[in-house]
Specification:
This protein has helices spanning about 10-20, 25-40, 40-45, 50-55, 60-65, 70-85, 100-105, 120-125, 140-155, 170-180, 205-215, 230-240, 255-265, 285-290, 300-305, 335-345, 350-355, 360-375; strands spanning about 90-95, 110-115, 130-135, 160-165, 185-190, 215-220, 245, 270, 295, 350, 375-380, 385. It is α/β, with parallel strands linked by helices. It folds into three domains: about 5-85, DNA polymerase, domain 1, CATH 1.10.150; about 120-325, Rossmann fold (3-Layer(aba) Sandwich), CATH 3.40.50.450; about 335-385, Arc Repressor Mutant, subunit A (Orthogonal Bundle). The radius of gyration is 24 Å and the shape is elongated.
């Protein structure tokens, strides 16, 4: 990228790009073929049906002959959005000198990329060393803590965390990255909606914080609803922006495995954090490890990867130490220590703990409540408890 801001376009040029994006059946793959064959979108629409059919199937070629009915309203919305905050709102088209270089290497780069974020963050993207972090939308308490702690330590080491603004691991990773105040580009969120919408709505404040210090990106036009098919597709951009992908926690049918697969197809490294053999949320990671993903039990495993030139602070060495936030700030009592030893690191029921430690129900429930209030353990569905901290 030789410039830091997208090239200015007049209304007609912008309309042509938007028309190409909105034409049914075109998408990124056919769109790239058309641009390669004919040049800018305006030249595409000047072609005959026969010429278009030489590049794309007949159905798509015929669709290119007529402007989509929503084109005029979408163009007005886009122009208003760009004018609303010219310092934060950007539109980058394929071929623009400041189009993210890492996305040019994927099979089907977006024709248009909508970007929201600070000038400093946008400028920093050119040299950013990005790591994708993905995982379950319903992580265990330990999984959410791991995501936040890894993201914080990796950002402190100079990396930029890329994720998808979903609930669970994604949100925890974004929040962990944002904790490093000195980072110019702590995190990037790639979303499956138009940038004038936030999905899920629970992450509205998080999206606002990311836009203030990082970047939010989408290939979807403004006003696009959160349709289910959009999220697996946007995952290729999450892995595409990054040099490697870390899967924190994932079930066997998790969308995170799609991201991991796309990373492998893009020639990127995949890392996975192992979990309990009894946890369904760890089975996806275990499957990835069996298939060749690199097992990770500390952030140094990632920082040692060739290609990452990091600050390598001493406090980024392991995710089980106090620097990552997983250790206790105050020593536990002997009673708490005995209970945590009995619990181990696997989810445990009240009945199981009672058999292991031999306490009466009242005492055990009281101790569990104290540890939960201190953030030392978390409560899982089904009446299970899981330890979150070392001692």
């Amino acid at each position: 990228m030789s410039t830091t801001e997208p090239q200015a376009m007049d209304g007609e040029e912008l309309e042509a790009w938007l028309r190409l994006q909105l034409t049914p059946g075109i998408g990124s793959v056919h769109g790239c073929r058309l641009l390669k064959a004919f040049g800018l979108p305006a030249a595409v629409f000047a072609q005959s049906l026969a010429a278009l059919c030489s590049v794309v199937p007949d159905r798509q070629a015929r669709a290119l002959l007529d402007p989509p009915p929503e084109l005029a309203s979408c163009l007005r919305t886009l122009l208003q959005w760009l004018a609303q905050d010219s310092a934060q709102h950007r539109l980058v088209t394929l071929g623009d000198p400041c189009y993210p270089a890492s996305l040019l290497d994927i099979h089907d780069p977006p024709l248009m990329l909508y970007v929201q974020g600070s000038n400093a963050a946008w400028r920093a993207l050119r040299q950013a060393q990005c790591l994708a972090m993905v995982g379950s939308r319903n992580p265990t308490p330990q999984g959410a803590d791991n995501a936040r702690a890894f993201a914080r330590s990796l950002t402190q080491a100079g990396l930029t965390i890329v994720s998808g603004l979903a609930l669970g691991v994604d949100a925890a990773a974004h929040r962990g990255a944002l904790e490093i105040q000195e980072s110019t580009l702590p995190t990037i969120a790639v979303v499956g909606t138009g940038l004038d919408r936030v999905y899920p709505a629970q992450n509205a404040l998080l999206a606002e914080a990311i836009a203030a210090r990082g970047l939010i990106m989408s290939e979807y036009p403004l006003g696009t609803a959160p349709l289910p098919a959009h999220f697996p597709r946007r995952n290729r951009l999450i892995s595409g922006l990054a040099r490697a992908t870390l899967v924190v926690e994932a079930a066997l049918q998790s969308g995170s495995l799609i991201t991991a697969q796309q990373a492998l197809e893009q020639g990127k490294d995949v890392f996975a954090i192992p979990g309990s053999i009894h946890s369904t949320q760890a089975r996806g990671c275990h499957t990835l490890i069996k298939q060749g993903a690199q097992l990770v039990d500390g952030v140094q495993d990632i920082l040692d990867m060739p290609g990452f030139q990091t600050q390598r602070p001493e406090k980024a060495s392991a995710c089980s130490s106090a620097d990552t936030g997983l250790a206790l700030e105050e020593p536990v009592t002997e009673g708490h220590k005995s209970l945590m030893d009995a619990m181990g690191f696997d989810p445990s029921s009240l009945e199981t703990l009672q058999m292991r430690i031999g306490w009466d129900t009242a005492r055990l429930q009281a101790q569990l409540m104290e540890l939960e209030l201190q953030g030392i353990l978390g409560r899982l569905p089904g009446g299970l408890f899981q330890r979150l901290r070392q001692y």
